[in-house]
Amino acid sequence: xxxxxxxxxxxxxxxxxxxxxxxxxxxxxxxxxxxxxxxxxxxxxxxxxxxxxxxxxxxxxxxxxxxxxxxxxxxxxxxxxxxxxxxxxxxxxxxxxxxxxxxxxxxxxxxxxxxxxxxxxxxxxxxxxxxxxxxxxxxxxxxxxxxxxxxxxxxxxxxxxxxxxxxxxxxxxxxxxxxxxxxxxxxxxxxxxxxxxxxxxxxxxxxxxxxxxxxxxxxxxxxxxxxxxxxxxxxxxxxxxxxxxxxxxxxxxxxxxxxxxxxxxxxxxxxxxxxxxxxxxxxxxxxxxxxxxxxxxxxxxxxxxxxxxxxxxxxxxxxxxxxxxxxxxxxxxxxxxxxxxxxxxxxxxxxxxxxxxxxxxxxxxxxxxxxxxxxxxxxxxxxxxxxxxxxxxxxxxxxxxxxx
Amino acid sequence: xxxxxxxxxxxxxxxxxxxxxxxxxxxxxxxxxxxxxxxxxxxxxxxxxxxxxxxxxxxxxxxxxxxxxxxxxxxxxxxxxxxxxxxxxxxxxxxxxxxxxxxxxxxxxxxxxxxxxx
Lengths: 404, 118
Description:
heterodimer; A: mainly alpha; Cytochrome Bc1 Complex, Chain C; globular; disordered C terminus; B: elongated
């Protein structure tokens, strides 16, 4: 036992882990759940990475059409024509022992990561975390990470090539057609990178590589920078108006180990427990497959992280609605430059708290409405009058290869 | 059906009820004991963890027997049976992690008590 303790101490000393484990953490950040949401998102990312490694070993992207049995969670009969991508995910989810749990954990972790990212963003918005020294840089990293997280969710949603995934790639590639000056070069660049105006083996392979390699690598780099910033710059200040009470709260610290460490381990275990419970009680079906050339039937909807966007695209002028996420991201980026005066307590900056609530309301209203009603695409006075030229449209589903 | 011959174990429903009973009793006991003494809460959690591990191993055993049975996947009913057992395994694992999480967070609460924050 003594030898083991000596070995442990040696590891802590030689790998310089002691400095990390003993770094002081303010007590208010340990006991306030608003300060845990970033941890939940980061932990979800690592759960996704681990389950993603296993899934990437088993998944084979491809468009060759094959026959699969129906999804047992949907309760249909007969067989489906499906792509190799779909058949591959079907094999993982339903024909591999413990593959079902693997896929469900990956899916629910992804949803948890998106939800925690959004909640973390609003919590930090309301707390005014960007107002301290170094907070603006962390805020910028956070906005980039949020954008990458949503992108990663959509890329992952495309991979099984079910009807919803095909809808996601269709929307994703057609999104730029609504911006004449900015969108046309971007859409042409996308077509050049993908090498096609419709889904091919190469396109789905590119989406796969983006999902498993490029976007996670970017997330890892930005996450590393963010953790580094928090480690050396400290966590957000407490939202207390009274200066004396605030400095008292800031000074009251606990060592990371064992205090915050016990909480973080508990939070990770609790998070995994919730994810597995969701997998057991409300498993997510694989949905109906899509085959190349098939148009998306009405009633198919995107996943909830982008549902609000889909709702607004169908409800209002696409020029406004398609630009909405770009506007929201750009606005989020300039918030630290606009909100500079005053303290960080809610009563001192209620205008910004109200703006944060409007932000939540825009996304929440669109999400809920999208699930409650099926909005038909209508021609209204607000609908864009001139349709963009066809040469600018990376239109998915039309079998017209690029080149001779 | 060929799989009925292969799977001689308990039904998924029975396993689910057993796991849920152990999980609920375990969670209440561990939470209750955490208010009294963390050491006893840890011992209680360990006992429930052992029981749940046995249930998990039993369920996984059935899953592997099912998926390695000749002819598995020929009907949707077989696949649905496999999914049901996997859902039970996920539930058991969830209960195991919940108990471990309770003990871990309980340790932080004890540190707070020791340092006079409560």
